[in-house]
Amino acid sequence: MAINATLATGRPLLVRGEPGVGKSQLARAAAVQLGRRFRHHAVDASTEPRDLLSSVDAVARLAEAQLVGALGWGDRRAVAIENFIRPGALWWAFDECSAAAQARRAGDAIADPAGAPDRGVVLLVDEIDKADSAIPNALLDALGHRRFDVPGCGTVEMTSSARPLVIITTNEERSLPDAFLRRCFVLHLSLPDDDTGAAVREALSARGAAHFPDCPREILSAAADLIARRRLAMRRQRQPAPGVAEYIDLLDAVLVQRRDGIDPIALLTEIATFVLDKHAPPAPITERDP
After folding, report:
1. Fewer Cβ close by (within 10 Å): the C or N end of the chain?
2. Residue 277 class from Cβ within 10 Å (0-12 exposed, 13-18 middle, 19+ buried)?
């Protein structure tokens, strides 16, 4: 329903939830289901507002300038900035033809993603909360105007008849601007926690069966039980609780190392120590000498 509403209005979809609950996978699944191209930009602390639109390969440009200077001859137009501009994910989502032309100009190899070009793009902007507020503001500005300027290359406009489906994820590491939230649809994803952990066990086991169809049911259930019990304990201590990501890692590690003669449940319990114990234990309380 959230995807359909986003497609109908052109609004971005902000997906909230704990790490590993399936936020990024939702965008990939939507691209497959809709037959669209999939584009992805992972935000980090060094991401700048223009990185979603385009970036300049300053290192390659400097190397070219040094080569021209050392040789003392050559066409100085070779170091023009437009020869070193690489299209960002939003450029590909707006106008794939001009993005491909610019990528070739910059000497980039062009991969042909799955999906029909005329059906539009699913653009995933992953973990937008890792950057400052300038990133969501720049994204909304480009989407609102359906165009943006690239110095040296001119204006990039949204040419596709199908507007891009923009899905943005956050792990809640920092708050997002209120103006940004007002212009997004918001979908909350979470595991179905309850006081007993039964709902989590059922949800995780279903995820595990889909991810590892050949995994024995006893391993799926035992791993889900470990995660469920740890979630209850960590929430009581007000600490980050394990989720789908840890569950999948745990199953993957057990299935890779499983061999004849080794009890898989014992192996699961042993590996769980490394998968789940990610926080330092509390320091012991000692009485001071009088």
Report:
1. C
2. exposed
Instruction: Please tell me the CATH superfamily of domain 2-57+83-188, with its number.
Output: P-loop containing nucleotide triphosphate hydrolases (3.40.50.300)
Domain extents for the chain? Answer: 2-57+83-188, 198-276
Tens of pLDDT along 13-68? 999 988 778 899 899 999 999 999 999 999 998 888 888 999 888 888 788 788 77
For the stretch 125-140, pLDDT in tens is 999 988 888 888 888 8
Determine the Cα–Cα distance for residues 218 and 208; give it in Å rounded to an integer. 11
Residue with tokens 């939507």: 30
Predicted pLDDT at 72:
63
Amino acid at 201: R
CB–CB of 179/136 below 8 Å?
Answer: no
What tokens does 216 get?
């024995």
CA distances from 272 to 28, 57, 64, 232 (A): 29, 43, 52, 16
